[in-house]
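Input structure tokens:
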């Protein structure tokens, strides 16, 4: 015992040739959190939430029982013949004692683990962020510069149009998020990718006409599509990963896509207009990316918690 609210359980070091030195049958916990750090050997965790994880040396399992969870821990059939680790039990504060239960498994090398285990999720998050970034950075952020240079608007009027577009983003965001909770992320992503393929060229054509009402229509439609996609894409990228691989996976997939399709595309759009004289080039860029990522959305499983039916979950897959 470390104190009235915390104690440390030390198991091992053990060397064995047969049997299961750890064979803890399913049992319940409430109101506490356990942190298991494995120094050597292998331990299989499975619980009533549906998580199953094989803990490897230098990996960490974090289980929050909260309102209640049942779990089992055992040495797997195929093992190294070694077992050594520690488990810290911490009593949750009164405010957290009845929180929803949860589980997370953290491997020794998150980067290597993400690249070997979550490659498909990284690709999906890259696809989502690629379209979300180009629709936002080219369809919203770049629009004032486009209206000034190609649309022949004053800087003042261009900024006013962009301000109205920003209001549209604010308005569509909560409604699209609630809609995706109801009908699913996948359907909304597919719909918005189709709109992103069909509309931007025409909208940039309207904005380059020099007519204020047409320019306003073009800017508002682009803002609505970009804002709606951001509302769904932000949560959908995170939902591609379990808790243990989320930060690393998002760094590799979503952040990389944002750097490429967000930071570089306004510059590329302006360069294309200056080199070709085609004012619809920014819209064509958005449409090409939308068509390129559409297959990923079509093959994507549903992740909205309210409607998805998930199989037994692996905390490390």
């Amino acid at each position: 015992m470390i104190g009235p609210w915390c104690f440390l359980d030390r198991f091992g070091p053990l060397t064995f040739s047969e049997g299961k030195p750890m064979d803890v049958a399913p049992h319940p916990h409430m109101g506490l959190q356990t942190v298991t750090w494995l120094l050597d050997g292998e331990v299989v965790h499975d619980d009533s939430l549906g998580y199953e994880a094989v803990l490897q040396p230098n990996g960490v399992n974090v289980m929050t029982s909260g309102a209640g969870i049942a779990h089992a821990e055992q040495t797997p059939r195929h093992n190294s013949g070694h077992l050594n680790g520690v488990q810290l039990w911490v009593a949750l504060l009164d405010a957290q004692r009845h929180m929803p239960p949860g589980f997370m498994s953290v491997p020794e090398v998150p980067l290597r683990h993400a690249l070997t285990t979550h490659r498909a999720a990284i690709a999906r998050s890259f696809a989502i962020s690629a379209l979300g970034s180009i629709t936002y950075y080219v369809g919203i952020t770049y629009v004032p510069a486009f209206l000034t240079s190609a649309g022949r608007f004053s800087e003042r009027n261009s900024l006013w149009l962009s301000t109205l577009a920003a209001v549209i983003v604010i308005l569509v965001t909560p409604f699209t998020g609630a809609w995706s909770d109801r009908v699913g992320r996948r359907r909304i992503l597919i719909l918005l990718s189709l709109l992103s393929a069909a509309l931007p060229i025409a909208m940039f054509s309207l904005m380059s006409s020099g007519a204020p009402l047409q320019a306003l229509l073009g800017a508002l439609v682009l803002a609505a599509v970009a804002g709606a996609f951001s509302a769904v894409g932000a949560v959908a990228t995170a939902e591609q990963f379990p808790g243990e691989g989320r930060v690393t996976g998002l760094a590799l997939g979503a952040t990389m896509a944002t750097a490429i399709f967000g930071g570089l595309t306004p510059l590329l759009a302006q360069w294309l207009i200056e080199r070709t004289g085609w004012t619809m080039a920014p819209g064509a860029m958005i449409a090409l990316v939308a068509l390129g990522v559409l297959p990923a959305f079509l093959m994507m499983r549903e992740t909205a918690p309210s409607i998805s039916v998930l199989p037994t979950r692996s905390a490390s897959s």
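The longest helix spans residues 155-183. The first strand starts at residue 6 and ends at 15.
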